[in-house]
Structure formats: C-alpha cells, structure tokens
C-alpha cells in the first residue's frame, strides 16, 4: 500500500532523511515517531510529492509518487500540523475548492465529511473565526473528500484540548477499523501513537531507528524491583542467570528467563524474598532507549 | 462543467473574495475623481481648450466626457494600474506557498502544471476585469463631469493628436480598452512569473513594479533611443495608437507578438521553476 525504498533527502547538503525503507500494509494503523527534525514531515512531503527525493522512491497503491503523482494521490487524504485555509472564505467554500482539485466531489459527500467531524453547525462561518480545534476538524473533513483509502496525518491533534484530542482520535480509529482505511500517523506524542497505532517506526536524525510492533520495542528483558534480605548476594545470582542490575534493587532478566526461576534460586540460596515487583518501562523510556542505542 | 472550469471558478472565488483585490478598484475611482477635479481647474482646463482651439476646432465641442475619460486612462494606468496588477499577480502563487495553502492543494491528485495554469488564467482574468473597470469608471466619471462630447486625444510622446465625433470616439475608447487589457497582461505576467520563484509575495510585487518603472524611464531617455524596441513599455503603449486617425494594425500586431512572447516566457519560466521546487 505505502512503500518507501531507500528514500533519502538532502537540503543544501544537510541530510534530512537517509535511506528510509518502510512498508505499510493495506489497512494498517501505522505510527511515525520522532523528535522535531527527525524527518517525519520530510517523509510526508516526499509521500505527497511536495518534496523531490534525492534518491529512492515513494509509492502509494503501487504508483510512484514522483512519476505518477496523480494516480498515487487519487485515493489519499492528508492533514498537516498547521492546516492552512483561506481564512476569508467559509469552511464550506474551502472544502469545495479543495475538493475540486480532486476532480468531482458531490455535495452529499462533503456534507457527510462535515458531519463526521461534527462541524455542521459552523461550516458556513468564515474560517478566520474558527478555533484551532475547528480548523483541525475542517482539515480532517477535507482529507475525507473524496473518500480516501489512505490517510496521511501529520500531528493531527497538535494543539487540541483533551476533549478535542479524544474526538479526533475516535474519528481516526473509526475510519481505520470500520472502513479499513490505511492510516499513517506522525506524532511526537508517544501516548497518542500508542493509543492508536499497532505498528510504529521511529525516526532519529533522519534515519530509521526502529520499525515493528510496540510490544516488540521492549527488546531487552523484563525488569523487576526486588526486596531481598541480602542484596549483594542477589546481584551475583542475577548475573549468573544472565541478567543485570539496572539500579539498586532493580534488575533486568534476559527475555528467555522466567522470574520464577530467579525467585526459586534466591530461596534456595537462603534469601528471604519479601517482594518481586514487575516494572513496566514507560513509553518515553523505551523510546529514548531506542534512540539512545541508535545514537551509540 | 469541466473539471478545469470548476477549478478555475474556485481560483477566481479565492481571488475575488479577498478584500485587497478590491483596493485597486477603490483606488482607481478615487484617483479618477481627483484627476477630473484637477483637469477642471481653470489653468489646466484653459490649456487643453487652447490646444483644441489652436488646431482649429471648437473647445466646447471636444472638451467633454470622452476627452476626460482618455486623459484619466492615460494617467491612471501608468500611475497605479501597474501597482495593483503587480500586487495581485505577485501574490497569487507566492502567498499560497507562504501561507501553506499550496501544500493543502498539492495533497490532491492535481499536477503542478494545472495549478500554475489555473492561477495564471485567474491572473489574466483579473487583469482584464480591472482594465475594463478602469475604462468604464473613467468613462462614467468623465461623462458625469463633462457630459457627452467629441473626443480629443493628445499624446506628444506617441505623436498622437486626434479628434473624433462622440460616436466614433466611444468606439475608439472601447477598442483602446481591449488593446490596453492585452498589453497590461505583461505586468501581470511578470508578477506571476516572479511569484512562482522562491520569493516573498511582497518581493515579487516590488520587483515587478521596479522593473516597469525603470523600463518606462529608460525607454523615454534619448540616450537609449536605439534600444527602444527592447523595452517592454515601448510595446505597451500600443493602446494609445487606437486613437491614431488610421489605426496602425501592423504595428500593434508586432507589439502584441512581442508582448505575447514576453508573457509566454515568464509563464514558462514560472512553471519550470515551480515544477522543480520543494514545498516545505
């Protein structure tokens, strides 16, 4: 569905994206994570043909964006971080004008999109009186006309209040789950990507640091907080099992080891095991570890 | 309605819904009223009347609305016509890129060549609309002030000195407006071409204006007389020759060809640059 092959982009000698290869299957809800300047927006720009790749190819639905842009984007809707509309026109007029660039879009389809993002009551107001949340909703509405197969969403909830974030998130999830739209979502909000995406890719300094499922991101083993009668002796035992001490009273076991084995060994060694508390690393920790390992 | 026409309608809606698009229209009306008021002051009025009488005609017959209308046209198109055409044409692509709305448009399955063609067409339509508005309002202002009378045209720079009865005068003004709207396209074309470059909208406007002002100044300097055919403003004065006793169609046709080549070059350069631009 979306395929990026060895995609690179250099701006005035400075690499913004280096050798990115990624495949996003049909119907996926895919998250693109990265700091500001990691290359997320460049990736979107390349996918939409706004930017010309220095090397590599980007294709959507089997069409190369560079050579067959119109075919590639025929079934694509996109939302940007700061959507720009003609503020002096109404939301409706903006929708009609933008839809006209896709060929034909009947009014019923426009109405349905407006209804979907719950903007019906204000759609004939000039965009200049819209709040940020309303602009984001209008941006999503225009991306839905004509009905796309692929949604490219660059920070779609940026600047929204919690209620707005929830609302937009529900609409996007619904489009993916009920209508089978392929969604590529870029965000620097880890919680948002975690809540919405099955699979992710992490970009760091223009390079792909990780791609796969969230769960697989935890490449190192599980971590536990131990409360034992003799900590130095426990440290030796953990090391013997292939684990490591992360901090005082905190250990990490290899992925193939069961914590029950450790507890049994501790008890056999005469330790009093008062507590074994599994520790779940936060998304931020996992993300930073991934980026950290890439940098190292 | 074809897709192109639907898209063009949207482009025109964007253009004509903006308040700044109408600044030019309002400014023209104000300047026209000012010019007519000045021409009706005793000294300039007396000078024009003397000019007509010295040629052996009755000043009362020829110092009327049509004469005033052409005088208004001569001065306003030079004074502020270029300004407002440059303002709109310099904005038309660069402002969309600057605001980010161009990226919104280019998320759609539409080619950049189509976008540029649409915007250029909208620009040309605006030029024609503005020119005809100037003509119609100049005529209206002239008629309100001076009533209907014969047409007297005097332009020493272009060696035009002519007098027409009211009916023929009106026809000549209509013809001059058609020619004027074609020559004015060159101002819009330069603004448009510059607007396609990686440039701020204001810069496109300022460069366009500067180019035409300098071109017009150099064209008038005796030192550059041998280079006159190469100045754009030389060819842009074709419209005033619609008031020659015998209209020099061959000459006007050559001017049109030169301006058409100038306009087409700017359009193609703008298109080529825009096609290759990265839009971030």
Description:
The complex is a heterodimer of chains A (296) and B (280). With 296 residues, chain A is α/β, with parallel strands linked by helices. Chain A contains 11 helices and 14 strands. In chain A, strands 6-7-8-3-9-10 form a 6-stranded mixed beta sheet, sandwiched between helices. A 4-stranded antiparallel beta sheet of chain A has the order 2-1-4-5. A 4-stranded antiparallel beta sheet of chain A has the order 12-13-11-14, covered by helices on one side. In chain A, helix 4 packs across helix 5 (132-143). Chain A is elongated, with a radius of gyration of 24 Å. The two termini of chain A are 33 Å apart. Chain B has a two-stranded antiparallel ribbon with strand order 1-2. Chain B is mostly helical and 280 residues long. The mean pLDDT of chain B is 90. Chain B contains 12 helices and 2 strands.
Which keywords apply here?
A: 296 residues, 6-stranded mixed sheet, 4-stranded antiparallel sheet, 14 strands, B: 280 residues, mainly alpha, 2 strands, 73% helix, elongated
Derived from helix and strand composition plus strand pairing, the structural class of chain B reads mainly alpha
Query: Tell me about the biggest sheet of chain B?
Result: 2 strands, antiparallel
As laid out across the biggest beta sheet of chain A, the strand order is 6-7-8-3-9-10
Approximately what portion of the residues of chain B adopt beta-strand conformation? under 5%
Q: State the separation between the terminal residues of chain B, measured CA to CA.
A: 33 Å
Number of helices of chain B: 12
How can the largest sheet of chain A be summarized? 6 strands, mixed
**Total number of strands of chain A:** 14
Q: Topology as H/E string of chain B? A: HHHHHHHHEEHHHH
- Widest beta sheet: strand line-up of chain B: 1-2
Query: Share of helix among residues of chain B?
Result: over 70%
Shape of chain B: elongated
Look at the helices and sheets of chain A and give the structural class.
Answer: alpha/beta
Number of helix segments of chain A?
A: 11
Which percent band covers the strand fraction of chain A? 25-35%
pLDDT < 50 runs, ≥5 residues of chain A: none
| Mean pLDDT value of chain A | 89
Alpha-carbon distance between the two ends of chain A: 33 Å
């Amino acid at each position: 569905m979306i395929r990026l092959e060895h995609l690179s982009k250099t701006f005035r000698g400075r690499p913004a994206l280096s050798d990115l290869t990624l495949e996003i299957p049909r119907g996926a809800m895919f998250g693109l994570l990265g700091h500001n300047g990691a290359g997320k927006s460049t990736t979107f720009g390349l996918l939409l043909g706004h930017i010309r790749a220095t090397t590599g190819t980007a294709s959507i639905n089997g069409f190369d964006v560079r050579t067959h842009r119109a075919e590639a984007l025929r079934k694509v809707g996109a939302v940007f971080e700061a959507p720009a509309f003609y503020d002096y026109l109404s939301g409706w007029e903006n929708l009609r004008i933008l839809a006209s660039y896709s060929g034909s879009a009947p009014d019923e389809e426009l109405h349905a999109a407006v209804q979907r993002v719950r903007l019906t009551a204000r759609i004939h107001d000039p965009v200049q009186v819209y709040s940020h949340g309303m602009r984001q909703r209008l941006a999503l509405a225009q991306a839905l006309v004509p009905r796309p197969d692929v949604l490219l969403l660059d920070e779609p909830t940026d600047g929204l209040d919690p209620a707005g974030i929830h609302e937009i998130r529900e609409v996007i999830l619904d489009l993916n789950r009920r209508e089978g739209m392929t969604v590529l979502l870029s965000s620097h909000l880890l919680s948002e990507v975690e809540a919405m995406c099955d699979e992710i890719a992490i970009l760091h300094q223009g390079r792909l640091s990780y791609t796969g499922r969230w769960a697989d991101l935890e490449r190192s083993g599980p971590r536990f907080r131990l409360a034992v009668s003799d900590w130095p002796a426990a440290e030796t035992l953990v090391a013997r099992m292939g684990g490591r001490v992360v901090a005082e009273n905190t250990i990490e076991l290899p992925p193939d080891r069961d914590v029950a084995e450790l507890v049994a060994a501790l008890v056999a060694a005469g330790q009093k095991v008062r507590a074994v508390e599994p520790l779940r690393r936060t998304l931020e920790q996992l993300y930073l570890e991934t980026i950290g390992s890439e940098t190292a | 309605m074809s897709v192109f026409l639907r898209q063009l309608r949207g482009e025109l809606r964007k253009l004509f819904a903006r308040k700044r698009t109408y600044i030019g229209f309002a400014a023209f009306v104000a300047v026209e009223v000012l010019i007519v008021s000045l021409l009706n002051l005793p000294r300039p009025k007396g000078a024009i009347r003397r000019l007509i009488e010295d040629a052996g005609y009755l000043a009362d017959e020829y110092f009327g609305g049509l004469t005033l209308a052409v005088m208004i046209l001569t001065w306003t198109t030079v004074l502020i016509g270029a300004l407002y055409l440059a303002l709109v044409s310099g904005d038309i692509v660069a402002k969309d890129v600057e605001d980010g709305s161009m990226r919104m448009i280019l998320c759609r399955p539409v080619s950049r060549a189509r976008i540029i063609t649409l915007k250029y067409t909208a620009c040309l339509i605006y030029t024609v609309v503005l020119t005809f508005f100037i003509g119609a309002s100049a005529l209206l202002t002239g008629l309100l002030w001076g009533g209907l009378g014969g047409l007297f045209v005097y332009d020493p720079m272009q060696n035009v000195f002519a007098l027409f009865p009211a009916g023929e005068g009106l026809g000549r003004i209509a013809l001059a407006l058609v020619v004027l709207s074609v020559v004015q396209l060159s101002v819009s074309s330069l603004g448009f071409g510059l607007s396609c470059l990686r440039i701020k909208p204001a810069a496109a406007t300022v460069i366009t204006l500067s180019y035409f002002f300098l071109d017009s100044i150099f064209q008038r300097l005796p030192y550059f007389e041998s280079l006159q055919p190469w100045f754009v403003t030389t060819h842009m004065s074709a419209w005033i020759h619609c008031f020659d006793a015998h209209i020099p169609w061959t000459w006007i046709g050559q001017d049109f060809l030169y301006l058409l080549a100038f306009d087409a070059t700017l359009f193609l350069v703008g298109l080529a640059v825009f096609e290759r631009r990265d839009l971030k």
